[in-house]
Queue: 2 jobs
Job 1
Amino acid sequence: MTSRSALSALRPGRFDWTGLFFALFLTIVIAVPLLVVVTWAFTEVWRYPSVIPQQFGLRFWHQTLSRADVWEALWISIRLSATVTLLSAVICLPAAYAFARMKFPGRDIFFLSFLASHAFPKFGLLVAIAAIFLKLNLIATFWGVVLIQLVGTLMLMIWIPVAAFQAVDRRMEEAARDVGASPLRVFWSITLPQAGPTIFAAVLLTFVSTFYETEGAWLIGAPQIRTMPVLMISYINNQIVVQYGAVLSVILWVPSFIALMFARRVVSNGGFAKGFGA
Amino acid sequence: MAQTAPHAAHGGSQPAQGRGLFGLLLVAIPVLLVGWLIIYPILAAIVSTLWIETPQGTSFSTGSYRFFFSDGYSLANLSLTLWTTAVCAVLLLVFGLPIALYLRFSTSRFAAYVQGLAIFPMFVPSIILSYALIRTIGPNGTVDLLLNAVGLPKLPSPYLTPWGPVIGLVWDNLPLTVLMLTAGLGGISTSAVEAARDVGAGPIRVFVHIILPRMGNSILVTVSFAVLGIFSAFTLPYVLGPASPEMMGPFMLRTFNDLYDPLNAKTQAVVSFGICLVFGLFYVWSIARNQERRSR
């Protein structure tokens, strides 16, 4: 039924009722739950059955931000995400360049091997890794969590940059070489400016997705390493003050918002779907 | 990183073999990481759940698997997981396909807004979504408030029932479903659709005879990818789902962390691998095929 009306959008000159329907439907389903959270974050009193809160205010922001466990978790999360993103960039970007430009034995097989991280049910894979880490005494350590999160970033940090390097115009590079530019100069002045924005988006998405990574951090990190998402789960489970969770949600969402600003172009023009092999 | 690939015409002084080795060197660390932290743990999990270490040495035993498949609680968790995965896959197609079709063929001003909203959940982490859904569809949540305000009775809340994770997982996986389906629809030319319309085909016939045959493969890839993600999802089932039976993700975490029982946790993981094997193989196979086609 809906696919039929979706196709009718092809006919010009008609009001786009289908579009209006999807727009309203998605606004209610996607936007409303998020607005509810934002409202709760700025609420001091909201008793059932009032549709709007009885009293707005910032009291719970002060309370949340004065908690030591929040700052500790935030600091660990930032350190973890920065370490993982940096390591991932250092090992993956040269590899992506090699995959895009060089010929070497086993290239295609190695390139496809990164799919392995998406070809198994993720939590099962994490448990299998955790069993290995148990023997290596990496459980409940910072570097154990770094390693398990690093594995999750590999595919995104290789497949998207490979597509970016391949999209660079080879003729421009060759022309620069012909007029005597050194390989380094060509890379810096021709290749990087063209591939740069997509690679930057990949790095940003890696940072953000690592920041929100919950499963690996909990399975490997518990109980010593407590990241923001893990702290948030314990807030939800222990049912302490509703507003703590709401305030944390709003704070937690900031990195994602920044990613949204920068990476939207890459995501919506299909580059991101390529990172998952679409 | 600092060296551009020496093109055959330019970097003639360097022997081809040396370049090959340099390329291998650049990809070595990520490839080794895949070997050490993906392939090896999976093989080790399979081997160590079948060859059990005992004080007398290792011996072959299928005991942990026999336990899993005879234990009522494990089986209940497995069937809940299968049910959730199947329902989510169907719902994702029911919602994702019309949206993708609309985005592919519409030129209206609503299209950009619809696309923005459909992709938006990608930027909302599961944990924030979990919290948002508790406040919205949970007991005394926004839905209850609104129903009460217009004088309707409360609906039974899906929170802490199997439908809680279903709602969350569909919400969470909608963006990638829409993106992957839209990418698949990109291969269908507008002129083919218009030609069919010109000879009088209705929208249903256009969909069944022109669009569906051309995107069958991308539907299967999308479903495979969604299944792999949903089958062992953790955060949403853990927060929104019932405590018992539980989905495989929370079940494995509890077995590993709370019961401190790596053997049975690994057994549960290997069972998950086995069940998702078909989807994983299909996913890898179809992407490998696409890559091949692209590089030709």
Job 2
Amino acid sequence: MTKKTDQVLLDRLADAARRGDISRRSFMHFAAAAGITASAATGLWGTSAAANPSRGGTFRWGVHDGNTSDTHDPGTYVTRQMIFLAHTHRSYLTLIEPDNTLGPDIALSWEATPDAKQWTFELNPNASFHSGKPVTSQDVIDSLNHHRGDASTSAAKALLTDVTDITADGDHTVVITLARGNADLPWLMTDYHFAICPSNGDGTINWQSGDGSGPYKIDSGEFGIQWALSRHDGWHLDGAYFDQVSMIILNDPNARQTALVTGDVDCVSLIELKTLALLQRNPDISVDNIPSGGAITMPMHCDTVPFDDVRVRTALKLAIDRDEIIEKISFGAATKGNDFHLSPVQPYWPDDIPQREYDPDQAKSLLREAGQEGLRVNISVAESVYTGAVDMCVLYAEQAKAAGININVVREPSDGYYSDVWLKKPFSAVSWGARPTPDVMFTLAYKDDAAWNETRWQNERFNELLLQAKAELDQNLRAEMYREMCMLMRDDGGTLLPFFNNWVYARGKGVERPENVAASWGCDGARAASRWWFAA
Amino acid sequence: MGDILGLVAKRLGLGLIILLVISVIIFFMVELLPGDIAQAVLGQGATPENLAALRKEMGLDQPAVVRYLGWLKGAVVFDFGNSIVTGASVSETIGERFANTLFLATYAAVIAVPVSIVLGVLVALLRNSIFDRVANVATLTSISSPEFFLGYILILYFAVNWGMFPAIASLRADMSFVDLLHRTFLPALTLVLVVTAHMMRMTRAAIINLLASPYIEMARLKGTPPWKVIVRHALPNAWAPIINVVALNLAYLITGVVLVEVVFVYPGIGQALVDAVSKRDFPVVQACCLIFAATFILLNLAADVGAILTNPRLRHPK
């Protein structure tokens, strides 16, 4: 390569980086191809990447969904307050990069044996807890074991059931052995429960102190009210531009929006969709409307009449006008679903599956074939499933009338909906949070023997593929298998998936973010505090 | 004086029995809520094994009566137990919250009580004038609007349009007292607007009621100026009903502030109670409700004692 072409390539790379077209890792990769040493490339990335973040300031972050009764226990993480705080003061083995690829957090690198049964993670020797203690293999092992074993109350226990052993190979190497091969293990480690906490030395972790190895350390705070954090000098990754982070719990949507408008906070984690259009008119506020992996599903029990007939299921899937629902119920803050539970921002999403559209005539003829003309079904729903969930079902019922289907909307109490209605009523509406990989999602809710197989769907080919794909390290083969599984879900499964809901959050004046934001959670994969900055 | 002490003792004894009954009712009402605490803590993501493990850890595998008696045993020696969800002691969990609520209630009361009594006397003096009408219409309008609506109106004008006060009342430990008053002004003002009408109108009604009495007639006939007739002659006899309505409103300032707390994101006890109910955290719910019940009992007692003290006929019974 001549010096001239070298320079051209470099300039192009730098431009792409500035626009945010390529991730840091692809940048490093291309730069290496261009013959630049790693350290030079790192420096180049730093200078050219999007708008040169400046350091300083206090990021006041208005967060919804926080309770007084929340705790620091990673096993019970459930509210946004806990999740956003966890990504701000703690670290994980791996993380989701702004371009939704997998990247390193505490683990510098990882590799598997060919059968994907044993994974070795090399830890970053620079990682340290806020107390000053370095992060060692023991901390990682005890943090993961917190979610294993009979006594564990962790909500993430199911993700680690295949793990048979976790051992240390020196201070900075962790080896995880699995009963069955799992090519997704590094992805699983991004799950918000698997935060790394300091070990007590006796196999347990000290989660109570709130110590972590993340970008910011907790100075003071109280669950359900607010948290004051300051930068952890010596954090092992790039970023953490703000000097301080003040996380304020604002559960009331109106209080949240007013606080943003009056400048009492710099960012709010959720805005009400009804006022989305109004807020977008305010020149001082930038609204981010980012597709997510979270979905609304309407599961039908495949073993219950009339849903045991695939023609009836398909007719019900054809009788919904997703565009109208997204426009009227979600105010545009949703991504159209195609009846398979994998969103465009998730790994292995097949981009070539034809979109299912509203087709009442075809639905009608399918029902005629099945001898179910004038079908009557009940759908159970509660307002807590999704803002406007009841309206959504009423609208669906209206749309289905064109196909001769009578849907009776049963409004259930929000309290106890997931213990008394979900999995029990044959047709209901459910909201799902995003899972890191298709394997996790499918194993959780579509596998024949899954406790949460909400459609009671039994498909031999699907279950066979699911097990095969799990241990397949060849990316192309795997993608092909997931594509086939998605087709099966779409055409045979019991799930009507109207849409994936978007993350909708807003930033006040002066808060800058990179071109790409992670879609694993709202506010840049819950990492706004360490990835965003104030305009200089 | 001895009679008053006797009355206080008797009423306090009765109050304790009422609190006991309330605690039983609350416990079984929490039991009646669908779903249980383990389900509420682990959320939608719970598996049956998880739930069983957590229930055992929280002691939920014991029968309800045993759990209630266990709580009661602690409560009689003022140990209200630990929050089932967080494991922290209940007094620690709600202590600061309750202090915040008391602060806001005091702030509002310090403004509302003098303002409404002075206004009440003034409108009684100037009854049926324009001033009387305007004051009545204004206060009735504010009491008829739901608190959250009043709160939003105040936020719209004072915070968004004029930028005079902050829209959210989040507190910080290092705030100066003046900062604190500034930051919590809008929630306090909302409460003032809500309770003023009631107290003002009661003052007005109580005074006007007395104006037809012969002794007021006498005072007028001997040439006492109208303001003196009301302040010196009518008001002392009107204290009993006024004190009653003031006590009722003070209790409301403490127990009825949930909506105001939500609108202004004020870290008070109402929000803690709502959180605890949604998590079925019985000890915290119980403690909050008992605080509310005790507030009503004590303020009612104070009102009765106040009424006796201001009325010589009750103070010196024949």
